[in-house]
Task: structure prediction
Amino acid sequence: MPHISERAVLMPASPIRKLGPLADAAKARGTKIYHLNIGQPDLQTPEVGLNALRNIDRTVLEYSPSDGYLSLRKKLVEYYEQYQIKLTPEDVIVTTGGSEAVLFAFMSCLNPGDEIIVPEPAYANYMAFAISAGATIRPVVSTIEQGFALPDVDEFEKLINPRTRGILICNPNNPTGYLYTRREMDRIRDLVKKHDLFLFSDEVYREFIYTGSPYISAFHLEGIEENVVLIDSVSKRYSECGIRIGALITKNQEIREAVMKFCQARLSPPLLGQIVAEASIDAPRSYSTEVYEEYIERRKCLIDGLNRIPGVYSPIPMGAFYTVARLPVDNSDDFCAWCLSDFEYEGETIMMAPASGFYSEPGFGQNEVRIAYVLKKEDLQRALVILGKALEAYNNRNL
Result:
């Protein structure tokens, strides 16, 4: 029997989804699960987006251009102007979600054996995309004690070698919710400029910043405009994860031409998704304001509640809608699985993402979990009660 590829063997399972079979079994037993494991907002998609979907009057659902409809790319250019990001439609390539944007960026900029430096913990699928491109992630690990602030520049310099091709950041950060400061972004800029590296910047969560500190885009950094590849998606800001519309944005023409070859090979981004995304950009300001205020309340509810549970600690996330929390357990992978397979409280349990999956090297995140606060406050409060009961029961198993 033929063996699968080495690439497939190396591909990591998603820490966000790998516990799915245990969750399915728990639901089959009649257990209610509070899903804190995945960044799927429960807030309604903008009505203008839903109406665009309901009122499609096409008689043929055709291929779109490989780089996406020009009308959508123009709308995106207008959207970025409010953040002082000056673009042309030619700088924007519409992708099948932000995930495809990361993959195509890696495939276009990295050779097999090349290395990229990534502050960790980091979005787990970055490693999968790097493996797909034959590249290697070299982690610079931030710590919960420092609130997941960017490690010192010396830690980056230690890793830079002839195979180093780029730095990848997520700002605001998934999974920690950390927001990079102007000083930290300037340090990254200086590294990129000094070593002539690519800067891959995932900025999907720019709408969700809960501090007076400004959002500093990679495109705000002077002197490295041709080095920057920005990754974006409409999934989170419009609660449209399922339409699979993202964008790869760069002023570097050579990169765009390379990316377009991969875009042409997959033919076109989703037609219906582009229609919904384009309409959603015109959602009234009141929509984003209400969503923002809701997440402010959820963040306070979750972080206050976590830090009241004995032995649990979470720094205050400054952006996105995630936090990484430290739990009083030796192995969060086992604990998260146990919550689904062996525990329930009054017929309910919780599902979280073990943080070990957000680090590329074994041994990190063993007592940490990522929690997404994408549930209404009443459900978050209930989930916190269940978490406290679960920790108590888990740590008393062998007494």
Notes: The longest strand covers residues 164-170.
